[in-house]
Amino acid sequence: MSEKIKILLVDDDEDDFIITQDIINDIPGNPYHLDWTASFTEALTLIQEQKHQVYLVDYRLGAHDGLELIAMAIQSGSLAPFILLTGQSNRETDEKAMHIGASDYLVKGTFTPFDLERSVRYSLEHAKNLAEIQKLNTELEQRVMVRTQELAEAVIKLEETNKSLFEAQQEIKKALQKEKELNELKSRFVTIASHEFRTPLSTVLSSASLIGKYKLTEDDEKRQKHVNRIKSAVSNLTGILNDFLSLSRIEEGKIYNVPTSFALEPFAAGIVEEMQGYLKVGQQIHFQHQGQPDQVTLDKQLLKNILLNLLSNASKYSAEGKNIYLTTTITPETIILRVQDEGIGIPEADQTHLFTPFFRAQNATNYEGTGLGLNIVKRYVDIMQGTLTYESILQVGTTFTVQFGRNTTR
Hints:
With 410 residues, the protein is of the alpha/beta class. It has three domains: 5-111, Response regulator (Rossmann fold), CATH 3.40.50.2300; 119-251, no CATH class; 260-405, Histidine kinase-like ATPase, C-terminal domain (Heat Shock Protein 90), CATH 3.30.565. Helices cover 51% and strands 19% of the residues. The protein has ten helices and 14 strands. The protein has helices at residues 14-25, 40-49, 66-75, 91-100, 113-160, 165-211, 220-251, 264-275, 300-316, 373-383; strands at residues 5-10, 32-37, 54-58, 60-61, 64-65, 82-86, 104-107, 260-263, 284-290, 295-298, 323-330, 334-341, 387-393, 397-405. The strands form four sheets. The chain has a five-stranded parallel sheet with strand order 2-1-3-6-7, sandwiched between helices. Helix 1 (14-25) links the parallel strand 1 and strand 2 (32-37). It starts with a strand and ends in a 5-residue tail after the last strand. It is an enzyme of class 2 (transferase).
């Protein structure tokens, strides 16, 4: 028989403990053991002892509240999931709970054994995902330590060689710069991954929990709302993972330019059609092709990724009802692709950093994203031996132009 999962209930009302125990007893198979404390101080002590896998915390705790307890526990290093118990369901409480680090919340007097079991199960899975991110952080730090040791050994070897002092200094500077970039990349990756994963995961968990409460036919609209939230969050996670995987493959040198011959106009028209499901309400992509013949020799997959990324950005940073323009042009010497939007534009002070990994412009912080998209596009264009330029005016729009030579086939 497997050991039961230990749950600690922090609630200053013994009646709530008895009710919660009865609900747990009604869970099929009852894989849980419930302990209880009414003391805020004792709860902090028990949490530090790490004897429980999950914590149920009441919103009202005498002179304190549950949000304060959860915040203090997480700040002291607790990694176990916290589920807030509240007397009423409202968006403000939900957002506060998720902001301080709670995995979920349940409304007292309304949740069933099924609701509690699902909330505990989802919260444990959420905690497991966060633990994996922290494990990745530790592994990256170990890699940095190894690289630092390798750097130290390289310095010793350089000192033992007969190279000139100037050559030795240059090698050391390059190694130090590479080490610094690796460390900065690690820190930014962990910070952004932790933040970007946490938001959609919290959305999935809260919406999944709320769906179970809408059981009547007249609740279909509310159910569908949360289903759409889950779909959007999963789509966001997929985009984040694809960005990280693309960057990783580029860094490892696993992206190659493999040109093939194909007709450019139907290829671009197909991408426009594929984008239709991702546009905001009222947005339209106006596609125009200029020049003949239509046949080009380029890496088809890399070109598709470039256009999808630029068109997605054009839609994301433009309001509903705005136009997006895609123009493909073939001349005897060049192949030109141009994406123009009527969006928010890029501040002039940010334009020099536009292709830097993880960079977000000042006016783009309220939009979802990792800051990797344009960096990946630029590196794809470089791999294909092309050029990427842009023009942008605040509140007017941005135009990106990709250009390839007709004889660039390697």
